Amino acid sequence: MKNLKLGIFGFGCVGQGLYHVLQQSNAINSEIVKICIKDLNKPRPLDKSYFTNQKDDLLQNDDIDVIVELIDDAEAAFSIVSTAMNNGKSVVSANKKMIAEHMEELLALQEKNKVSFLYEASCCASIPIIRNLEEYYDNDLLTSLEGIFNGSTNFILTKLLTGGQTFDEVLKEAQNLGFAESDPTLDVEGIDPKYKLCILLFHAFGLIAKPDDIFNYGISKINTFDINYAQRHNYSIKLISKCRIVDEKIEAYCLPTFLPNDAVLSQTNNEYNAVILETAFAESQLLYGKGAGDKPTGSAVLSDISALNHDYKYEYKKNARNHGKLALCEDFKLRLYVRYNDSTPPLEDFESIEEKYASKQGNFLVGTIQLKHLKHSNWINEASISLIVLNN
Ligand SMILES: NC(=O)C1=CN([C@@H]2O[C@H](COP(=O)(O)OP(=O)(O)OC[C@H]3O[C@@H](n4cnc5c(N)ncnc54)[C@H](OP(=O)(O)O)[C@@H]3O)[C@@H](O)[C@H]2O)C=CC1
Ligand SMILES: N[C@@H](CC=O)C(=O)O
């Protein structure tokens, strides 16, 4: 077995999680050579000699074979990862924003430099979804992939539905536990799970989608009125990311969704994530595990480092096979609950309205709308509007 020499960028939640996991695992032979962080004055649980704030101490260091990128700044991460690959080093990353925004450049860098770039931890943290999509679901029978791809929002929704705490209190708890992004807007507005959806869409179907092309709506406007609606109907509320192939087109979105309490995804609580895959013959399959947190995420990073010991690379076979054949589409229907306090949303945007309710506490309608009308409307951004998908 090789003795991999690691240069780690970032020693926050995930960096420290990886350190603990590496200490406790004897499955791989690796050594941390240096750790690059921003602030040299922060107290650290390791000897000072490990740390530097000079990226070239790692990137230009011939003793380092593998760069492990675990920082919270996507643009700095892209520069680090690009330089590392151009210097012939393999890279492991957990940075979904950077990967979703730069997928094409990252593919070219791997190709040009003949290095490996692995990022299992970027999607649903501890759930081994990317390598499964690459290896096990390497066929044309996968038709859809959906699930809960964000630990912080699932933690918040679980606590809000249980009652007793405000949105801000639960968000703070998710931040203290290390689940939330440094900018938690990425979590609560459904942007972080959309980045993950872009990555998984690529590994599932070979389509590179830009984050801006996929519609997302967050959970920040969900209030007691919506929670009461869910409880009256025996529903949970989950932030669902979904993509599926219909007639060589891909329908994809990330939206809060009411689900019956006995649905599999309703049983996925707190920081747990779940992915449901639909295939032609195996039918429905479920992957479940912690979607955020130090050691669960560190464990996925460890698995990538271990894969490098065996010279593992993603082959992106579906990209080669489906290149140019599939495209995102926006003309599909959603059954939607819309809660509003002030003015009624423009009813002409809807194909049909099946229920309209008004009271002193709040108003809602249930209707069917095409994604293209929803995505391009302005009224959905009003502070008093909340959107939640209702499954049939
Ligand atoms: N937290 C989680 O549960 C998960 C996080 N991720 C992803 O992992 C990555 C890291 O997240 P997390 O550990 O939570 O973040 P933290 O905020 O806890 O830690 C970030 C670390 O990055 C360092 N850093 C920031 N910018 C630079 C830079 N330019 N050069 C060197 N070091 C830098 C910081 O240094 P300093 O210590 O000096 O401030 C800090 O050590 C992110 O991309 C995140 O999206 C993925 C899955 C799960
Ligand atoms: N902020 C993210 C961390 C893991 O990707 C989340 O809450 O899921």
Automatic annotation (TrEMBL):
Record GO terms (molecular function): homoserine dehydrogenase activity
Phosphoprotein found in the keyword field: no
Catalytic activity: L-homoserine + NADP(+) = L-aspartate 4-semialdehyde + NADPH + H(+)
Highest taxon listed in the record's lineage: Bacteria
Pathway as given in its UniProt record: Amino-acid biosynthesis; L-threonine biosynthesis; L-threonine from L-aspartate: step 3/5; Amino-acid biosynthesis; L-methionine biosynthesis via de novo pathway; L-homoserine from L-aspartate: step 3/3
Keyword list, A-Z: Amino-acid biosynthesis, Methionine biosynthesis, NADP, Oxidoreductase, Threonine biosynthesis
Nucleotide-binding among keywords: no
Enzyme class of the recorded protein, top EC level: oxidoreductase
Entry EC number(s): 1.1.1.3
Domain (Homoserine dehydrogenase catalytic) ranges: 128-305
Aspartate/homoserine dehydrogenase NAD-binding domain sequence ranges: 10-120
InterPro entries named among the record's database cross-references: Asp/hSer_DH_NAD-bd (IPR005106), HDH_cat (IPR001342), HDH_CS (IPR019811), NAD(P)-bd_dom_sf (IPR036291)
Similarity section: Belongs to the homoserine dehydrogenase family.
Protein name, per record: Homoserine dehydrogenase
Originating species: Reichenbachiella carrageenanivorans
